[in-house]
Amino acid sequence: MKLDSKIPGGPLEEKWTRYKGSVNLVSPANKRKLDIIVVGTGLAGASAAASLAELGYNVKAFCFQDSPRRAHSIAAQGGINAAKNYQNDGDSVYRLFYDTIKGGDYRSREANVYRLAEVSANIIDQCVAQGVPFARDYGGLLDNRSFGGTQVSRTFYAKGQTGQQLLLGAYSALSRQIAKGTVKMYARHEMLDVVVIDGKARGIIARNLVTGEIERHGAHAVILATGGYGNVYYLSTNAMGSNGSAAWKAHKKGALFANPCFTQIHPTCIPQSGEYQSKLTLMSESLRNDGRIWVPKDRKDAELLRQGKLKPTDIPEEKRDYYLERRYPAFGNLVPRDVASRAAKERCDEGYGVNPTGKAVYLDFESAIMRYGQIEANLQGIKNPSPEKIRQLGEKIIEAKYGNLFQMYEKITDINPYKSPMMIYPAVHYTMGGIWVDYELMTTIPGLFALGEANFSDHGANRLGASALMQGLADGYFIIPYTIGNYLSGEIRSGKVDTNAPEFETAEKAARERISHFLGNNGKTSVDTFHRELGKIMWDKCGMSRNAQGLQEAIREIQALREEFWKDVKVPGRADMYNPELDKAGRVADFLELGELMCLDALHRNESCGGHFREEYQTEDGEALRNDAEYAYVAAWEYTGKPSEAVLHKEQLVFENVELKTRSYK
Question: What class does this enzyme belong to in the EC scheme (predicted)?
Fold first, then answer.
């Protein structure tokens, strides 16, 4: 198999324009003859389904939630990037492109990333037209804030609920098409397999999660917009239902899986409080605009904090270590996520953690509250305001910017973050790896496309904050409507896909046999028990840091756990009913294979880059040590029957417009 990324020729800034000007088109009359399946209705899926239906294609959209509005995109808090330079602070399309390439530690494709930066401005215009209530400044113009890995303000936001507002915009566009009949919506349906006929994706097998009915759906093209696989770690910021099964099923049918070990650890999550937890909560990275991260300088103070004998407000300023500001003065608290996460882990490992588990640092808003309060007092003409008045005014400013996030933190922890610092610790959040796609977002299976977090294409080894929403909407609104037409222009004479074909029969039979095995297994151990054990292996040995010995052990342990799972898993209930335990069993079975491939990928990549930190490869001061001479490529894995026997295909990354440098945020 030879990987062809289909990158257009010409200068970087002209590639997308040239592509659009020369791509094959499908006439409006022929679009009505073509069927497209979209699996997933988050930002990428909903925007793609709405856009393709508006163009005239017949679209079927599938989601396992009860409504497209329940997609996990709704949980994104902080914002969406776009290179509009509204702040006049030096931003540009090239700077967004460069920040993304650098932030990803030079492990992403130049052409895809530049296209993403190029269309970013259009996304904001589209969403404003839809009525998305972005924050505005005092003059009524759209406001911006900064995120990690940048020195400009380019992030558009709607308080701490940007994902929700953007998804409602996409959902409104999708709902319009559903009402017109151009999109047929299948809620509470889960894709069980991709159907490939004569080498092309021709449909899916789906299960109605309410009735248990197995259904066949044919189409001329299939789009997977099913998000990431972070829940392989069990504890993550993802919704409990988020999973990697659709991508994994596609992988087993011939779609290469790229860079699976590139997972992102988010630095600002509410720390785990006990073994009973099944979910972690994200606190938006936007909080790092105004919050300062610190631990005590003295281990004895940290110990007293852990014992509850000291309060954080008891630690005077001179005894606090603002370690990100100390180590990375140029970026301070706004270093990229991988850098901030490893720095927090290092401080906690050294004994400076501040909660009872020792796995937490402080995110403190005291100085921001007093700074904003003084500015507001000046604006109001209040002379010689008291500290209490300054605090009162400052808290109102912070509430306007982050109020729902502060409220959420207090509800979960019973700590008022206006009066005491938040406690945060890194947690699994996003997956940069995913299904390999070319410039057209098509996988190695013709007719099968992957959008958003489900593909690998834009973020390299570490995603910059506020870029996930940007990629999802760019793929759905502005890229796939062009690129899928290039493929479908060759399908207008294909006729309707016959769901009685032997390939559909075979795929459905395999899905039914798997379900029958789970329900008839008579094991003794719950699905969650296996999932929790897998997550512990992954976090301990393929988490924030990895080493060769641990990865080899993890592969053996996952293989043994998978064997035990198939022998001893207990799935109650029936197949012809709503049965969430059955749904989970299928997803965990896939995680038990995907986790092994992730460890294999991490083991083969003998370097540190972005979120992939191999302990054997680091600089003297503990930073990631890349090996560009040997590993400047995309690792795309081909399934051959067992994850540990996957075949590696390399897409060499060519950098013609940026110079490969050691990342520095100092």
Answer: oxidoreductase
Query: What domains sit in the chain, N to C, each tagged with a CATH number?
Result: 268-427 (3.90.700.10), 502-633 (1.20.58.100)
Reported as a single tens digit per residue, the pLDDT across 204-233 is: 999 999 999 999 999 999 999 999 999 999
Residue pLDDT, tens place only, 445-474: 999 999 999 999 999 999 999 999 999 999
The three-state secondary structure class of 31 is helix
Q: What is the identity of the amino acid at 41?
A: T
* Model confidence at 323: pLDDT above 90: yes
d(CA 97, CA 103): 10
Catalytic one of 154, 292, 337, 562: 337
C-alpha distances out from residue 8 to 13, 115, 184, 434, Å = 11, 11, 34, 22
Q: What amino acid is encoded at 415 in this protein?
A: I
Q: What is the pLDDT of residue 311?
A: 97
| Residue 337 appears among annotated catalytic residues | yes
Cα angle: 660, vertex 664, 666; to 5 degrees = 160
User: 621: which 2 tokens?
Assistant: 């001061």
User: 658 exposed, middle or buried (CB, 10 Å; 0-12, 13-18, 19+)?
Assistant: middle
What is the separation, in whole angstroms, between the first and last Cα of the chain?
42
Q: Kindly report the CA angle at 633 between 82 and 242, in degrees rounded to 5?
A: 60
Residue with tokens 């209040």: 382
DSSP assignments along 416-455, one per residue: -TTTS-EEEEEEEEEE--EE---TTSB-SSTTEEE-GGGB
Instruction: Report yes or no: 24 and 489 within 8 Å, Cβ to Cβ.
Output: yes
The residue-averaged pLDDT of 10-39 equals: 97
314 class by beta-carbon count within 10 Å (0-12 exposed, 13-18 middle, 19+ buried) = exposed
Residues in the chain: 666
CA 199 to chain centroid, in Å, comes to 29
